[in-house]
Design goal:
The protein is mainly β. It has two helices and 29 strands. Strands 9, 10, 11, 12, 13 and 14 form a six-stranded antiparallel beta sheet that branches. It has a four-stranded antiparallel beta sheet with strand order 1-2-3-4, with no helix packed on it. The longest helix is centred in the N-terminal third of the chain and has 11 residues, at about 130-140.
Amino acid sequence: MFSPKFGGIDGDIVFKNGTYHFFFKGNTKVDGKEVKNGIQQATSKSLKGPWIEDFKYLDVYSDKNIAVEGSSVFKLNNSDDYVLMYDLYTKGKYEYQTSTDLFNFTKVSKSFTKNFNPRHGSVIGITKSEARRLNDEWEGVSVDLLQPTELTDRYVFKGTGNPIIKHHFTADPAALVDNDKLWLFTGHDFEGDQKGYKMKDWLVFSSTDMKTWTEYPVPLKLSDFSWAKGGDAYAAQVIKKNNKYYFYVSTNAYGIGVAVSDKPEGPYKDALGKPLLTNKDCFDSKNYWACIDPSVYIDGDGQAWIFWGNSECYFAKLKENMTEIDGEVKRINFEGYDFTEAPWLHKKDNLYYLSYATGFPEKTAYATSKNISGPWKYQGIMNEIAGNSDTNHQSIVEFKNQWYFIYHNGSIQPNGSGHSRSVCIDKLFHNQDGTIKRISMTSEGLMH
């Protein structure tokens, strides 16, 4: 194909305006002895040649007796600039120069940071859609290339067992069934191997068949609540009322807020400019994070109720506007009551179910009642401790005649943990007497 006059290694080819540019590490020899080396190029109108060398050196180190090799040339997306990247292998780093015509490169090199350690690597520019297709086939693509950022952007992916979302660390699921679609809202653990909770936004996904999922841009961030600076984007739930969608969030010590949108995918805006509920409303609690984990249920008569709390479970009616408490805040209590957090309400056959996290590490227990305001009857444990996560947080919904138990654990490998969690889904079944069959947490999830 091409043999440089004085030999060459580490070739890379880029095509521009009808010309192929062949970059390689070349050298200059006098009487058979190498006197200089560095990055050179040859050009041709065909990959088969002939190739024309210009014997010029492109890298800034060729006159400084500093060796470079492993060159790669690539065009930046959405730019006229080309990057000539090379390996300063004796110094253990990469640097680069840029050009718009591939002949005249900048005279000063720049270094760059990277989260990997390549030797003689090459780079090719791809689009976000191409990156997503690569991830669908092999996984491992950076989440920055998968997560939608533009308002109309979407990322569609297939669930492959549990956890259902493998490119984010997700927690505290809350599902909403709206017509023919299930919407899944989750908390977002910032990264893997976290030693504490770092949660600054919420995520949203949807599915029509529980197999293929669509991810949307971030619908709501903690920073959208000006009164919650320094807080955390803890558990949340979205509910639909009067053709609007209300996003109830917990912010750790700052209280429970509510945001509103005309669309389930958002974006959402703070509806009040202040908390809906604070620790003052948690009158029997002493811990500063008592006012968390809101869960909203709209009864058959249209009355909306909100349940929340840590260590104690509180509940109250919501006014028709969904942004004010209507009347007295009450506390739940019943025989066998051992409430930690994460209340969730669902109803089947005129029986109300209150599920919640109990103990620590947390299991999921539940109680039943014929009235949403009680009295409640304790029914026992429905789900055991979830993997390597001290917490659990469930969402229970019926979708297309099947009930689902949605929860989190720390099962993403190798970086999952109790602070880097993952949302999972398994089927839920009610017994004829109204009790719930013990949940079987599986790796296969809905794939079996």
